[in-house]
Amino acid sequence: MNDKQAPAAPGEAPTRNTRNTGPGRLLIAVYGVFAISATARAGYQILTKFSEAPLAYLLSALAALVYVVATVSLARAGTTWFKVSVAAVLVELVGVLVVGTLSILDSVQFPHETVWSLFGRGYGFIPLLLPILGLVWLYRRRPSVAAESRSKAAQ
User: Fold this and answer.
1) pLDDT tens digits, 32-60
2) For residue 64, what are the CA distances in angstroms to 10, 39, 70, 124, 143?
3) 3-class DSSP assignment, residue 125
4) Beta-ladder partners of 6
5) CA dihedral for 51, 56, 62, 64, sign (positive or negative)
6) How far is Cα 54 from Cα 76, in angstroms, rounded to an integer?
7) Apex CA 125: angle with CA 134 and CA 91, to 5°?
8) Among the ranges 23-27, 30-34, 114-118, 138-142, which has the highest mean pLDDT value?
9) What pLDDT, in 10s, does the model give residues 59-94?
10) What is the pLDDT of residues 122-149, one digit of tens each?
11) Which residues pair with 32 in a beta bridge?
C-alpha cells in the first residue's frame, strides 16, 4: 500500500488521500513553516521572557501545537486524519479570532505579539487567512466527495 492510501475497512476499497496533492501540498508546506516558526518563537519566548507575558506566550505555544497537528493531519490519508485536520483548522480559526480580539481589547495581557495577536498582523495576516483557506480545501476534499469522484471516474 502506498502512503497516499488509507487502510480500508473490510469490504471497502482503500481511500486515496487527495488532501496532499496539487494546492494541498502548498497548504501543507505553509502549515509546516508556521509549525516550525511558531514553535521556535514560543519556545524562545517561554524560555527567556515568560514572566513578561505568560498568557500570550502560552497561547503562542498552543498555536504552535495546532500548526504541528494541522501539518501532520493534512499530509496523512484516511477519514480519521481528515477529522483531525478539520478540528485543528477550526481550533486555529477560533484561536486567531479570539486571541486577535483579546489582543485589541485587553492589550495589557498581550504586551508582546504572538502568532495570533492582532489577527496575525506580524505575519502579514496569514494566520487569519490560512484556516479559511484550509477549511475551503478540506471541504472540497472531504472523503465523501473524493469517493464520489472516484466512482464516477470508474464508470
Assistant:
1) 999 999 999 999 999 999 998 898 899 99
2) 37, 5, 10, 17, 27
3) coil
4) 15
5) negative
6) 33
7) 45
8) 30-34
9) 999 999 999 999 999 999 889 999 999 999 999 999
10) 899 999 999 999 999 999 988 875 555 5
11) none
One-letter amino acid identity for 24?
G
Quick one: pLDDT at residue 111? 83
Identify each DSSP E strand in 44-99 by its residue range: none
Grid cell locating 127: 494566520
Running DSSP on this structure, what letter comes out for residue 78? S
**Closest to 17 measured CA to CA, from 101, 84, 98:** 84
Classify residue 72 by burial, with Cβ atoms within 10 Å: 0-12, 13-18, 19+.
Answer: middle
Distance of CA 76 to CAs 8, 19, 29, Å? 14, 8, 13
Q: Which segment of 13-17, 47-51, 111-115, 139-143 scores lowest on mean pLDDT?
A: 13-17
119 neighbors 127 (Cβ within 8 angstroms): yes
Q: Residue 97 corresponds to which amino acid?
A: L
DSSP string of 43-76, one letter each residue: HHHHHHHGGG-HHHHHHHHHHHHHHHHHHHHHHS
